[in-house]
Amino acid sequence: MKKILAGVWAIAIFTVAACNNTKQENIHDQNMNHDSMNHDPMQKDTIKDMKHEGMNHNKQTGLLTDMNDEKKLSGTNTRSTEPLVREFINTIVSKYISIKNGLASDDRTGPKTSALQMASVIQKFDKSFFTASQKKEFDKYADNINEQLQGIVIAKQLDEQRSLFALLSQRVYELAKLFEVNRTLYYDYCPMALNNKGARWLSEIREIKNPYLGSSMLTCGSVEEILE
Known about the structure:
Elements: H1 2-37, H2 44-74, H3 82-104, H4 109-124, H5 132-154, H6 158-179, E1 185-190, H7 193-196, E2 199-203, E3 222-227
Antiparallel strand pairs: 1-2, 1-3
Helix pairs in contact: 1-4, 3-4, 3-6, 4-5, 5-6
């Protein structure tokens, strides 16, 4: 049964990634078509000359370009990879916040979509951009995060999603602390969450919007820590 669920989960993530890529390609094609329609016919000769010069230049720089592309693909490029890692963690946090906002609105469908997107982001990231220590730390959380995201997607009740979200919140909080994302986050706590067991969550705003109680007690809770 677990193998079947894992297979379905992998297909779901692949579908989300494929849809995102298709959207980006369609936008690119539309922009290319629009640009070609707006070309001035008088510019054709100039463009041909530029292309000719560009071909000669490319012959000289082609080897260097190929080498740089290979480095980028392998994750061994000489430029700092720290911004790429930070952007990756920021994207994870953004998808997490989308899940949080959906639960705060008593929405069960939105968090499923955001959870799939978050899983796709994690799966597609080239881990060679991590330093050895960063990879070791991230790998400690990755499996648990994936399990919690999978649970949120297949959950049939809001209560189930919220219980899993509490576990996810702890992991994302730890990642945000570890990688020092360049944004202000508020770590909130509600003692009445999850049947008075208490639970925490990260928020992008100071105002309390409780993802565990939703409309029943939306403002229940307080800011426990500010991450800057």
